[in-house]
Design a protein that fits this description.
By secondary structure, this protein is mostly helical. The longest helix has 18 residues, at about 5-20. It is about 60% helix and about 0% strand.
Length: about 300
């Protein structure tokens, strides 16, 4: 039962969120988000919607922290989606301090309500305690993360030294990666290992172009000319997005499959014992050390490897 004080608190929170989200008037939720949010009661739906828009806005601690406040409120109302999203903020240190134990606790209570993505995230977060964030158990504000300092990964240093005649590729990668919602730094890391940004690269196995697409992969993702930079990157990023969904965000498995094929990863139930593939995964991870990548559950059913883990 919601009392007057609770509604008053919610109105203040939503009002504050709207101030920070006002510049997002033209932003839209994804179809998946709309479907999920529409299944919630109106108060929770509004909280989730405003929080999602804040996360989608200009990256800042303030926006992410405001989103965390709204997810805290949704969590107190028992929303599994709010609990999962708050857990993701704690896992990534977005808006709130990074805290794997609080993230795991949120994933646990969300998964107990049948939230599939929360169940999968429990595989990647070490569970040591079940203490919930104070903002979930009481109407208090979450602790705010320190000011954002963009992480510098090895791929940043690598692309900073690209010759002038190859730098045009950076904008192309950023644009296409944005279309497919894949981190451009992961795409750049793969390109750097695959071809060293050589548009006309071709291997002995007929892998072609920047992202070294073999003919079967090029056909699968409708790439007519693998030596055309935009077509090649589009096909490679589309495949990478599919792999990230297939392996539910496990970057190492997706990268291994990009090199050796998803069938090989399924056969060996992990990174295949091929010297080339293991060297490849190591090189990509040196440049992109992030272990988990968000994925779209609607793209494909998960790999048997992921199903066995569950």
């Amino acid at each position: 039962m919601l009392n007057i004080a609770t509604f008053s608190c919610l109105r203040k929170m939503i009002g504050a969120a709207l101030i920070f989200a006002s510049f997002l008037a033209c932003a839209e939720l994804s179809q998946h988000e709309s479907e999920v949010f529409n299944n919630e009661p109106p108060v929770i739906k509004n909280l989730l919607r405003q929080a999602a828009l804040l996360e989608r806005g200009e990256p800042s601690v303030e926006n992410d922290w405001q989103a965390a406040r709204l997810y805290c409120a949704a969590s107190r109302f028992g929303s599994a989606e709010g609990q999962f999203r708050l857990g993701m903020l704690y896992a990534a240190g977005k808006g709130v301090p990074v805290d794997g134990e609080l993230a795991a606790a949120m994933f646990v209570i969300a998964s107990q309500q049948g939230h599939h993505a929360a169940q999968q995230m429990l595989n990647t977060v070490k569970l040591k305690a079940l203490d919930l964030p104070p903002c979930v158990t009481a109407e208090v504000e979450p602790e705010k993360a320190p000011p954002m300092v963009p992480p510098v990964v090895e791929i940043d240093r690598y692309v900073a030294n690209l010759p002038a005649d190859k730098r045009w590729l950076l904008d192309l990668v950023a644009t296409i990666s944005g279309w497919y919602k894949v981190d451009p730094k992961l795409v750049l890391s793969i390109i750097s290992v695959e071809s060293n940004f050589a548009v006309g690269a071709q291997s002995a196995k007929q892998a072609q172009g920047l992202m070294q697409l073999i003919p079967e992969t090029a056909e699968r993702f409708n790439v007519k000319n693998a030596f055309n930079a935009s077509q090649n990157i589009r096909g490679g990023v589309a495949y990478l997005r599919w792999l990230l969904a297939y392996f539910e965000g496990d970057v190492a498995l997706a990268v291994a499959a990009y090199n050796a094929g998803e069938g090989a990863v399924n056969k060996y139930e992990g990174i295949p014992p091929f010297a080339e593939t293991r060297r490849y995964v190591k090189e990509v991870q040196q440049r992109y050390p992030i272990k988990y990548h968000p994925f779209d559950v609607k793209i494909t059913e998960p790999s048997p490897v992921i199903k066995r883990r569950g």
